[in-house]
Predict the 3D structure of the following.
Amino acid sequence: MRHSFVLASLLCCLSTAAGAAPPPPGDAALRAAAHAAATYRTAVIDSLAKMVSFNTVADKAVPFERNPQHLGFKGYLKSEAERLGLDYTDHGYVMVIGLGSGSERVGIITHGDIQPVDPSKWKKSPFELDKTSEAGRLIGRGTEDDKGPIATALYAMKAIKDSKVALSKRLELYVYMAEESDWGPLTEFLKTHQPPQVNITLDAEYPVVTAEKGYGTISVTVPAQAAAPAGTASLVAFGGGFFGSQIPEDASAAIEDATAELEARIRQRATAQGGMRYTFSRQDKQLLVKAHGLSAHSSKPEDGVNAISMLADALNVHPWPNTTAGAMVNLLNDLIGTGIYGEKFGKIAYRDKFMGPMTVAPTVIKQGDAGISLHVNLRRPQGKSTEQLTREVNEALTQWQARRIALADVKVEITEPWLQKSAPQVPTLLSVFSYYTGIKNPRPISIGGGTNSRLFPNAVSFGPTMPGTVYSGHSEHEFITVKQLMLNLQMYTAVMVELAK
């Protein structure tokens, strides 16, 4: 069976490459998908609402094994699986929900944990599924990343069970509880657990993701510096950002002894920026500046407006004295600027024809007693070795320090990009996507984010986000549309049937 599946996939690849449309899904897949959409629209939304109600952000103060939110989420999934007639196995950080039997298996890979959230930025609680604030949208943390995909996968499996589709392979839904914070437990789990032979990850984009950029971080600290001479306009505070994989939408600065003329110049430069909002206020001798941009997933900095970068640029009206905050602003303007591709950061900028350009984004700046720390997020394609890129980053930092001041706690960590070259299910996924969307001749894509596809054999990502749309996961306005949720339900159902029939 496996050999015939691979052969059929190869033949489909050849016909698609030759310009022929891929064959549509079979009758069994279409019937099960139609049943899913007609029967489980309300149930999927209700299930998503329940999942969103659990705050499954990793909490350093509460171990996973004792975290009531995580345990509550797991308990709900167990009861939901049993109610739907699916089997359930708890492996600690990993839950496996299954349908059918057989030595050959198809894995559907998801995660139940979520990114941190600032409740003050939401119209309603981010842990309450908001169905009314914006027509057609379901708003809440995890709706797109990754609880929406879990709900649709569950009811896709239920629809297949209802339809009594004859499966020759077992379907297994994997829900991992630390994808956003720690891949270690999953890596350990897979050392002793035999994963399915073919896998799809529901944690990225359509039509099919076969490549992911490598993840990188640059961390530096500007050590505490001496204050500027009295009467000299100087930066005494600068900070912004929320967590490392989010484009920051908030940043702030404080300027001591700022004249009205200096404030006017900063205001003028800030006004010229697109997509930004600023507030200016006075407190004693200080000018306080708050910047508000637009958050986004750090793998797609083009979808956001980076408040840290933009505020540093607004302040770039003259050379600042090297106070702690002044040196940080100088560093940002010298090496990063408002671009997102690292063109100012020495020689690190490059791009790959398929995987696209490297992106560089400052995401978190924190001020403490020892100085101000900066976290920069990199997403790097193939085309340079890790050793070369690391060397180029360090060279740029060394050259900057020679011109400016010495930095502390310099850390550069860069992981490898990932490319899947052998997944036999790709033609099937493209066929289903084309049938349900009407998009002709879809092709695999590369993304900047990293998913658990890297850890599973023959794995690629399939949704849940449509091409050309803004990915809202990791932002402070995460949502999925009802239309997309139902489209995903149909496509997931059809794909599961086609891969397991």
Summary: Residues 1-19 have pLDDT under 50 and may be disordered.
